[in-house]
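This section describes the prediction task in plain terms. A model, or a person checking by hand, is given the sequence of a single protein chain and must write out its three-dimensional structure as a string of tokens. No templates, partner chains or ligands are provided. The sample shown here is typical of the held-out split.
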Amino acid sequence: MKKTFLFIVACIYFCLAFSQNSQHKIVFDFTKGDTASFATVVRHARNVMSVSANAQIEIVCHGPGLDFLLKDRSTVQREIEELKKINVVFAACEATMKRRGVVKDQLVPQAITVPSAILEISLKQQQRWSYLKEGY
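The expected answer:
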């Protein structure tokens, strides 16, 4: 009886300890090139960070969504700068860049590049990040 009680107490303790320290890790798959979608993805990232300040977010842009990170097309550069300050990561797909003839200098300075958006998203999922499709 005593061993069972101690086992139950230990289980409750570990469940509470791990649930208190859980950190949200979310990878956004962003593929839309319109300004309304730009505003939406910014709003979603802000909302998550306002509720869970220690969340990790990476917004992976590919296809038409690469426009989100292009200096001459993005309508949310100020918002990207603000989100970067609170550790939101913005990733541009190098395969899309190559296909479209885009070079790194054309991206907002807050952007990183990844060889393949699909592989980056897959890697994040293998690392137990949540997946969200943005710009649908």
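For orientation: Confidence is low (pLDDT under 50) at residues 4-11, 13-21.
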